[in-house]
Amino acid sequence: MLVGGAPLASDDVYRYIWDGRVQQHGYNPYTSVPNDPALDSLHTELTRAIDPSSAVLPTVYPAAAELFFWVVTSVHESVSAMVIAVVLFDVLSIVVLWRWLVSMRRNVWLVLVYAWHPLVAVEGAGGGHIDLVGTLFVLSAAYALYARHHLVASLSLAVAFSLKFLPIVLAPLLWRRIKIRDALLASGVVLLFYLPFMDSLLIPPVGSLPVYVAQWRFNGPVFAWFASMVGVGASVAIAVGGGVAVAIFARLRLPREAPEAWAWPMATTLVLLPTVYPWYLVWLTPFLMSSRTWILIPWTLGVLLTYVVWISQSTGGGWVLPVWVEPVEYGLLAGAVLLGWCVSRRRELDSSMRQKTSHML
């Protein structure tokens, strides 16, 4: 039902089609701007629907994402083709998650926390976001690391990073668990993705990423607070460093099969980013199967409230969130974290009391 109505809550899929289309015609998406008059002949009815704020910039997506767009548009240049391709990866994620639950002897019905999550449905079948493709590879990395298939884990995480930059904060989870050979091969895969887009200096292109970091702001109140005190650059460093720090802690203190070891580093970086679109939180959804990650569920549901921005956009008010959205959304997250801490603390006290009683007896 959702595939037929896409895109529902975001028009990024039109940019995907443009990036794939310009590659079909031999252009580099990292230098090709949609509103360039010289490229006007390349436009179709779909690509003319690109948001004007995006049309003035080259692509922001990493190299593996660009190759994905090229493959899909090679088959068919349409929203349906892009969405169906993303949904296929979504189905594969369900299969991988199910197999991981089986191998860990966990309740296999927990796969439904991901499969039936409304955010996944809306952003996948309803929006065709590339994040669902990256989610499969992060999930595959987690499963492979648990199964001690270290090369597969390394390559999967490398592909995920080449689809969206967020998974870079998970790199510490592989520290001293993989061989140097595996790390080198994974780095080589990233380089191979970027080679078709490099210039003669062999410098990986970043497209409009600097502009995105410097200017794009949406649903990021924590970043705004930090930026007002220490500036944009330092705030970005805090966002990335925070996720890496949590991943280091997880590597030192948690077993390799712990879902929270994968969810919390990404969640930490996400909450500190200048822009937090709903589809960014899709990366967390496969790992919401642990008592230590369930407290993230209210956030993954509360972020759906940001879709009301389309009401403001459609009525001429601009891309502006109502003032109540962020307090409610992040209040749900803060409340869930506080509740989780209280429950955990209560269990620790109960356990301590039982031990004391046992010693007395």
Draw up the topology in text.
Blueprint: H1 2-5, H2 12-24, H3 52-55, H4 63-75, H5 79-103, H6 111-115, H7 118-124, H8 131-146, H9 150-163, H10 180-194, H11 209-215, H12 221-230, H13 232-253, H14 259-271, H15 297-302, H16 309-314, H17 325-360
Helix pairs in contact: 2-4, 4-9, 5-8, 8-9, 9-10, 12-13, 13-14
Uncertain segments: none
| Structural domain tally | 2
Radius of gyration: 21 Å
SSE order in H/E notation? HHHHHHHHHHHHHHHHH
Beta-strand portion reads under 5%
CA-based shape: globular
Counting DSSP H or I runs of 4 or more residues, the number of helices is 17
Major pleated sheet: none
Alpha-carbon distance between the two ends = 63 Å
Query: How many distinct beta strands?
Result: 0
Helix-strand category? mainly alpha
Helical amount: 55-70%
| Overall mean confidence score, pLDDT | 92
Describe this structure in words.
- By secondary structure, this protein is an all-alpha fold.
- It folds into two domains: 1-207, no CATH class; 291-361.
- 60% of the residues lie in helices and 0% in strands.
- The protein is globular, with a radius of gyration of 21 Å.
- The model has no long low-confidence stretch (mean pLDDT 92).
Quick rundown:
The protein is mainly α. It contains 17 helices and no strands.
List keywords for this structure.
single chain; 361 residues; mainly alpha
